[in-house]
Amino acid sequence: MSHPRIAVIGLGYVGLPLAVAIARHFPTTGFDINPGRIAELSSGIDRTGEVEPTALRSSTLRLTGDAEKLRGCDIYIVTVPTPVDADNKPDLSPLLKACRTVGSVLGTGAIVVFESTVYPGLTEDICGPALAAAAGTVCGRDFFLGYSPERINPGDHEHTVDRIVKVVAGQTRQVTDTLAVVYGSITSGGVFQAASIRVAEAAKVIENSQRDINIAFINEVTMICQRLGISVQDVLETSGTKWNFLNFKPGLVGGHCIGVDPFYLAECALKLGYHPEIILAGRRINDSMGGFVAQQIDEALGRKPSRILVLGLTFKENVPDLRNSKVVDVITGLKEKGHDVEVHDAFADREEALRVYGLSLLPRFDDGDYDCIVGAVPHRPYAAFTAGTFAALVRPGGLIADIKGMWRHLTLPEGLRRWQL
Fold first, then answer.
1. In the chain, N or C: fewer CB atoms in 10 Å?
2. Using one digit for the tens of pLDDT, what is the confidence trace for 293-318?
3. 257 a catalytic residue
């Protein structure tokens, strides 16, 4: 397989940057089931902001929503989401749908690589049989499996797919070697060959689970500090002077990875008859943080119904990604306590916010007269606020609630109060 034809299935935050990178070296087709996504990408627009318009327009990547145009490819890379359902159980429907799509066009000798985050064993135990059923062939004889966990960090233009270490694993030694060559050609970070597909799956799922647990510890410390009447930001700044102190920050843990992946690891453990204590405890703490913040702000406002402006809705700063945003929990909590809440986001798509969360984002917020400003997401425009900005927006005696500490070193206008984690 000296010059394989490659298809990338799913062109979201993970798939599109990967497909563009691969297309620089191999003939590549990008597939997505959303016709609107294919149309906007064909016009050179990436609403995720992960690929620059010039790079997208100059790419040799072929875009399609027609599964038949995937026929004849040598390697299929699946990058579809792996969310959880309302009960925090793995929702495998996007993954299984992708397996049916790929299986319907799968040729003899092809390799199917999964980048989606899964629990150990899922690729071989669930995806392999699903592909075989759709193709009417035998996994391990007529086609082969691989796994290369995605490590995309939305909005991070330093640790991009063409610079990071890519982990690869194959069903056979030959598949692993083939994937090492393909991925090795697109990244300057090098390739690490995992001992097996299950090892690679486990490595991926614990990466984000570890981060989730560390943030949960800091969030729990935050709750203690609030009761002590001190800022956890000051505590962390002080602790950070020790050379081996781990630099984790408190806050709302959402998004498509950290707030989801631990549930996949927990599901795997439960299937094996083991109840994971720390993993689920971390999830409970982090999932409760939005309600805790809303309660603290309500108390700081004297539990009086107030007009509040929440700044930021996306799950992290400087990206338009609204998936699994926990700012929604803060907004819901404040509304339940009788406050009039308005929301603005400098990056989010207003139509998506309305469709997904039922929230009408403000187009602008220059009318002022708020009782409280909540800094929920430290987008660049909000972090650049000055004392004059707050003087124009907040009533005398009003509250500046700073969840992420982006204004902690700013001197507020006289008469305004400050609350922070």
1. N
2. 999 999 999 999 999 999 999 999 99
3. yes
